[in-house]
C-alpha cells in the first residue's frame, strides 16, 4: 500500500492513489492532518490549474510546501480533486 513518509512519520497511506506524472495523489481523508500546516505558496500548472501547498511538520521540523493539492483542478485533472501529493524529501513508498 503506498505511503508518504518524512522523518519516520507516516503522513499518508492509501491503496487508492492516482499516479500522474510520477506523483502519487492520496485521497485527502488518508492524510494525517496533524502533520500539515497551511502554506501561502501557490503555483500554476498549464494543464492542472492552480496548486496550493501545505508545509509538512514532524517533531517540530518543517518541510516547507512539501505537499500540494489542486482546490479547483481543470477539467482535464478532475481525477485529482480532493487529493494531496508530496515532494521535497517526503518519500512515497509504493
Find the structural class using helix and strand composition: mainly beta
Number of strands: 9
Low-confidence stretches: none
What kind of assembly state do the chains in view correspond to?
single chain
Which architecture would the CATH scheme give at its second level?
Answer: Beta Complex
Class in CATH? Mainly Beta
CATH topology: Metal Binding Protein, Guanine Nucleotide Exchange Factor, Chain A
Globally, the shape reads globular
Taking the sheet with the most strands, its summary is:
6 strands, antiparallel
In short, what is this structure?
With 94 residues, the chain is mostly beta strands. The protein has strands at residues 3-6, 9-13, 18-20, 23-27, 36-45, 49-58, 61-69, 83-86, 91-93.
Question: What's the structural blueprint in terms of helices and strands?
Answer:
Elements: E1 3-6, E2 9-13, E3 18-20, E4 23-27, E5 36-45, E6 49-58, E7 61-69, E8 83-86, E9 91-93
Antiparallel strand pairs: 1-2, 1-9, 3-4, 4-8, 5-6, 6-7, 7-8
Give a quick set of tags describing it.
9 strands, 3-stranded antiparallel sheet, Metal Binding Protein, Guanine Nucleotide Exchange Factor, Chain A, single chain, globular, mainly beta, 6-stranded antiparallel sheet, 0% helix, 94 residues, 56% strand
Care to describe what's here?
This protein has 94 residues and is an all-beta fold. The chain has a single domain (3-93), classed as Metal Binding Protein, Guanine Nucleotide Exchange Factor, Chain A. The chain contains no helices and nine strands.
